[in-house]
Amino acid sequence: MIIILKKDFEERQMTNLTDWLKSNRLDVHVSKGVNQTILGLVGDTSTVDIDLIRGLDIVEDVKRIQEPFKNANRKFHPADTIVELPGGIKIGGGNFQFMAGPCSVESVEQICLIARKVKESGANILRGGAFKPRTSPYAFQGLRDQGIEFLLEAKRQTGLLLVTEIMDASQLPLFKEIDIIQVGARNMQNFELLKELSHLRKPILLKRGLANTLEELLMSAEYLLAGGNEQVILCERGIRTFETATRNTLDISAVPMLKFMSHLPVIVDPSHATGIARLVKPLSLASAAAGADGLIIEVHNNPPCALCDGKQSLTFETFNEVATAVRNILPHCCR
Length: 335
What we know:
Elements: E1 2-5, H1 11-23, E2 27-32, E3 37-42, H2 50-54, E4 59-63, E5 83-85, E6 89-91, E7 97-101, H3 108-120, E8 125-127, H4 145-158, E9 161-166, E10 180-183, H5 191-197, E11 204-207, H6 214-226, E12 232-236, H7 254-261, E13 266-268, H8 270-274, H9 280-289, E14 294-298, H10 316-329
Parallel strand pairs: 7-8, 7-14, 8-9, 9-10, 10-11, 11-12, 12-13
Antiparallel strand pairs: 1-3, 1-4, 2-3, 5-6
Helix pairs in contact: 3-4, 5-6, 9-10
């Protein structure tokens, strides 16, 4: 349920109202926009007398929200959430960002070289896997702790922010200097991990699961928001369908649909979506045109020799072409 307040209310009135609502065992989340203030009620609202609340002097309207995700719902938070990062870098609300780097960190020389090159092409955020969830137990699992150290060295050398994937809450001490913690597709419904991350005040990049609906993605985001972490970034990375020509099927419709359903920023991973490097450029352009707030793209110094996902990784030259093409269309996109 949401309560829309009138523009000229007094803070004392709102305090009295929120205190009364909390006494009814309801959590109250306040969203203050430019033109409206909205109170979002989370809990059992079945016994709440809507007519009684609607009759209060400070109340403009009361509406029930049928969707199970309350905090992530745009009805509760009409304005776009803007995730603010160090250095004035923002994601959402018309702020578009490139995240680029290798699927896996292989050496300190490799990650520092890639960091310099993607920065030259306009990326502000370096991606790179230290911990790698792989389908096969015999595949390269990442450099783990050492991979984090190499990422931090690349950050020191270039000033780029970092995004990398966490596998388990026990790894959190290693992520103190990581700017964005990624929850991968396989962990999207690892609810115990999400609960731990909800206590942080650090951006979380939440990837959609391989076969999950948009509502399920938003319910996972709800775990983070309900625990107090409001810096959540959604990521569409392709879903599993009957199609075999590509690794996954990129759900372009997810971008505008998520924007309609939720206030959270949405980025797209065109690399994992198909697993084919030559498709990254058209899918990147389509994602930007659909309203995405950013792209996370795999870039490698030598894709044929990559230890992980070389087939979908771009060269430095190709990434520069993609970034340039996307920047050229952004002014013409509906943001």
